[in-house]
Design goal:
Blueprint lengths: L2 H13 L5 E10 L4 E9 L9 H21 L3 H10 L3 H15 L3 H13 L3 H14 L4 H13 L3 H12 L5 H20 L3 E13 L10 E6 L3 E6 L5 E15 L5 E13 L7 E14 L2 E14 L2 E16 L4 E14 L7 E14 L2 E14 L11 E14 L3 E14 L21 E14 L4 E14 L6 E13 L1
Antiparallel strand pairs: 1-2, 3-6, 3-18, 4-5, 6-7, 7-8, 8-9, 9-10, 10-11, 11-12, 12-13, 13-14, 14-15, 15-16, 16-17, 17-18
Helix pairs in contact: 1-2, 3-4, 3-5, 4-5, 5-6, 6-7, 7-8, 8-9
């Protein structure tokens, strides 16, 4: 133990029997830009008010002894930094090192102390940068290279950690350092097995029923104007149909650390209606991106491409960029902010070409064998070619949703979901003209309210086989009657996982 620490330990031992606290701050050094102060918290005890004069004299003498040691030992800020590190006061050491950073950064001795205090204070990235500077200036410094390798390991940068540990062995370290290095290399090897690239996917087939495949209004008669002729009572009947659906997915994940990875996936699906084939749907989705964790923050960014077919013809192409940030409040609670920007090129109608931006805020609660999610979102959609025919498609959408999921031991996985959407169109609907052929038939801007209920169930038939059932109920109410309808869709089938 250094003389400073001996004096400090001896002095504090005199005060250790007391329980009340007095805080004293002593100025022990200075530089051109700041003062260096050391704060000491002394327990005085519930009986201090009854202390004898002799005991009080001892207490004051001990305090002065500590102050004198500090003042004599710390005339250089870096010496004081060393004392703080030696004493294990890493947070204080890091705060002091931060204040000295502009003055001493680049000095190998200072950077090493900065790195030690930053690592122990939980500032891993700052520690890595500091140790990297030391290694650049002193490539043969065993302690600095070992500290850098350990810091890389602690943030799960296993590739860099392995490289630095192997470089350390080339420098012929001590037997103790060799043993520690080999232990870390063994741990890296064990982790690396779990970080191998992963291929996964599924293929499935299901049968279903759609109660309103054409989004019909019902059996009622609705007044529809015909320019120059008059108003006719027309019917928009509901058509139901049975369907079959094929779906497949192939995903690839290339981990770079425990929580960091490149990823890509391709998904394809086709819905074949039994009778109304004009409403068949097919899609091909491709996703590629990267996810990275910084402390409690999980970041994700990716691109999204979609080709969509409606009936027998290509309907649209979509391209989007997406990003999200998930912050873990604790082990069971997190909040996530996500957003995307998309561009749609409609192959059938140029008036439907659009750009849209969306932002979504989500609260996620991890439950025992389940999860509960609350979310709100806002989307702004704008047409690319603004004209009288396309303007009605510009709208904003606000939504609220609640989703619950639970894995039952005997029943399997159950999902429940509820979503409310309010879509407000920004311009009058010029598609439907009044009898005069000029004035819009609907005199108010379109407003749609949509409520969606979802129920899902998944049961494991075997290790790789799942039986899945989904129910979706949609209730859409619009102030323009041609857009109001109810729709129920049910499908059930099997899925093979690989």
């Amino acid at each position: 133990m250094s003389s400073f620490n001996k004096y400090l330990a001896h002095s504090l031992s005199i005060l250790s029997a007391y329980t009340y606290t007095v805080s004293l701050t002593v100025i022990i050094g200075k530089s051109s830009s700041h003062l260096i102060a050391y704060k000491l918290d002394y327990p005085l005890g519930i009986y201090s008010m009854f202390s004898t004069a002799k005991n009080l004299t001892k207490m004051i003498s001990a305090s002065l002894l500590v102050f004198t040691c500090c003042a004599n030992a710390q005339t250089d800020e870096r010496k004081y930094l060393i004392k703080l590190v030696e004493a294990g006061l890493y947070q204080d050491a890091f705060e002091l090192a931060e204040s000295l950073f502009d003055q001493y950064a680049g000095d190998a001795d200072f950077d090493y102390l900065y790195g030690l205090s930053a690592r122990q204070a939980g500032k891993h990235q700052e520690a890595i940068f500091a140790f990297e500077r030391v290694v650049m200036n002193r490539p043969n410094n065993l302690n600095a290279r070992y500290a850098l390798a350990v810091a890389y390991y602690e943030v799960d940068n296993l590739v860099a950690a392995k490289r630095e540990f192997e470089n350390l062995l080339k420098l012929q370290p001590t037997n103790k350092l060799i043993a520690q290095t080999e232990r870390y290399l063994s741990l890296i090897q064990q982790k690396s097995v779990r970080l191998d690239p992963v291929w996964s996917g599924f293929a499935g087939i299901s049968l279903g029923y759609d109660s309103n495949v054409n989004s019909g209004l019902g059996d009622e008669l609705y007044p529809i104007p015909v320019a120059g002729v008059g108003v006719f009572e027309l019917q928009f009947p509901v058509e139901s149909d049975n369907f079959s659906k094929l779906s497949a997915n192939l995903a690839y994940r290339y981990p770079t650390a425990k929580f960091n990875a490149w990823f890509a996936s391709a998904s394809a699906s086709h819905t074949q209606n039994k009778q109304y084939t004009d409403f068949n749907k097919s899609s091909l989705d491709i996703i590629a991106g990267y996810t990275h964790r910084i402390g409690a923050l999980q970041l994700r960014a990716n691109t999204f491409l979609q080709s969509f077919w409606y009936g027998d013809e290509k309907y649209h192409n979509m391209m989007a960029v997406m990003a999200s940030a998930n912050f873990a409040i604790d082990q069971s609670d997190s909040v996530q902010l996500s957003g995307n920007y998309s561009a749609i090129n409609n192959e059938v109608n140029d008036n439907l070409d659009s750009n849209s931006a969306m932002v979504r805020l989500e609260y996620i609660k991890q439950l025992d064998s389940g999860r509960l999610t609350f979310a709100t979102a806002f989307r702004d959609e704008n047409v690319k070619n603004f004209n009288q025919a396309s303007q009605q498609y510009e709208r904003t959408i606000n939504s609220l949703s609640i989703n619950w999921m639970h894995q039952f031991e005997s029943l399997g996985l159950v999902r429940l979901g509820w979503q409310y959407q309010l879509a407000k169109h920004q311009h009058l609907n010029q598609i439907f003209k009044d009898v005069d052929g000029v004035s819009p038939f609907f005199t108010e801007k379109r407003k749609d309210n949509n409520i969606i209920y979802q129920i899902g169930h998944e049961y494991a038939l075997a290790e790789s086989w799942r039986w899945r059932t989904q129910v979706r109920l949609s209730r859409k109410n619009s102030n323009q009657f041609v857009y109001s309808f109810d729709r129920n869709v049910v499908n059930t089938g099997i899925r093979y996982l690989f």
